[in-house]
Amino acid sequence: MENFNFYSPTEFVFGKGREMECGALVKKYGGTKVLIHYGSGSVVRSGLLDRVKKSLGEAGVAYVELGGVVPNPRDTKIYEGIELCRKEGVDFILSVGGGSCIDSSKGIAIGVPYDGDFWDFYTRKAEVTTALPIGTVLTIAAAGSEGSPGSVVTKEEGMLKRDVGSDLIRPRFSILNPELTCTLPAYQTACGATDIMAHVFERYFTNTKEVEITDRLCEAVLMTMIKETPRVIAEPSNYEARANIMWAGTVAHNDIVGVGRSQDWNSHMIEHELSGLYDCAHGAGLAVVMPSWMEYVMNHDVMRFAQMAVRVWGCEMNFENPEATAKEGINCFRKFLKSIGMPINFAELGAKEEDIPYLVETLGVGDGVRGGFMELRAEDVTNILKIAVDAKVR
Q: Are the CB atoms for 149 and 190 separated by under 8 Å?
């Protein structure tokens, strides 16, 4: 195990009806005037937005609103939010929604006190040194942004999807009420589950040795998702299953399962180009990319993939041919994704094989390499995407 620092300062407020505490929490963390940032009309129709406003009002916290966040959140909405916050003297951002809304809120939070273009942070031209505090009321279990230091945003010009990371944009508090996820369509639920599993796999496939504790934590989260995802698709109002998934989403990405080990993230970086170009759901893109990445890099450490097959999917270990066990585990993953309604190849996602050169170019691999579990050059990314073109369950 490697040396590590683990910093997770977010206060998680979990359970039924906890959104009614957001006003007191904003006040606790110093907010006096809040931007309520949300997405489409679902938070309005469900009455959640009204409950949030009521809670803020009872706490004596003033607020302004900015809705309209879309999946794969856009830079244009963030510019709008920055301007509104400056005009209104906002000192706290409250995100009411899923990962896209939280990521957009984080972009606003770092943009308001910055003299330049907030996009500088996402292109590594500037480093985050200050940010407005953020709180969240989570409505989708997926991205883990409610407990992470990351934000991913799409620039409309060129549809470039880029990320930034800083502990300064970890939410001060996150309210997690599993009831708020019960009305999600099955497809969104499955996309979220896929993203959660991908966050774990990006940490599970490591070159660091002797990390049994985090291996077992990763495996526990993955097995929870394998059990609970079909349950909530069959029974959308199953609170206990929703609760397990919601907490799994947070644990998967606040890095408790990733400390002390090298991590990968190449599947996420490759997928960002797919959802940037096609505007597909992030989880759907990951369902296509991640098993294809697994196939391509498997022989880098075949025993780790065989371990995943045995411990996570219950495959029988073939000691004479561990490669066969590893392949069986990857196939089990792809079969599971298909069973919950996820696409597993380009055609099902709506992607085009002829776009592969563009996807590789915009990823920016060039002649260099991307670190992680296995270094990838442009040729490697091309080959991974070619596997994804015709991928199928065997």
A: no
CB atoms within 10 A of CB 29: 15
Write the CB contacts of 190 (distance below 8 Å, at least 6 apart in sequence).
229, 233, 283, 340, 341, 342
Rounded CA gap, 131 and 108, in Å? 9
Tokens standing for residue 36: 């309520």
The contacts of residue 44 (CB under 8 Å, 6+ apart) are 50, 67
C-alpha span between 191 and 342 (Å, rounded): 7
Whether the model clears a pTM of 0.90, i.e. scores above it, the answer is: yes
CB atoms under 10 Å from CB of 144, counted, come to: 23
Residues with Cβ within 8 Å of residue 128, at least 6 apart in sequence = 110, 121, 164, 166, 168, 169
Q: Quote the tokens at residue 64.
A: 């302004």
> What is the rounded CA–CA span in Å between residue 18 and residue 94?
15
Contacts of 138 (CB under 8 A, 6+ apart): 97, 98, 102, 146, 174, 175, 176, 177, 180, 246
Which residues are within 8 A (CB) of 110 and not within 5 positions of it... i.e. 6 or more apart?
118, 121, 128, 130, 131, 164, 166, 168, 169
Lowest mean pLDDT among 273-277, 337-341, 344-348, 367-371: 367-371
The pairing of strands 62-66 and 33-38 is parallel
Angstrom CA distances, 93 to 77, 134, 174, 242, 378, stand at: 14, 5, 12, 26, 39
Phi, psi for 227 (deg, rounded to 5)? -75, -45
Question: For residue range 305-324, what is the model confidence (pLDDT) as tens digits?
Answer: 999 999 999 999 999 999 99
For residue 28, with 0-12 CB atoms within 10 Å meaning exposed, 13-18 middle and 19 or more buried, which class applies? middle
- Per-residue tokens: 123: 């292109």
Cβ(134)–Cβ(106) below 8 Å: yes
Q: Using an 8 Å Cβ cutoff, are 37 and 66 in contact?
A: yes
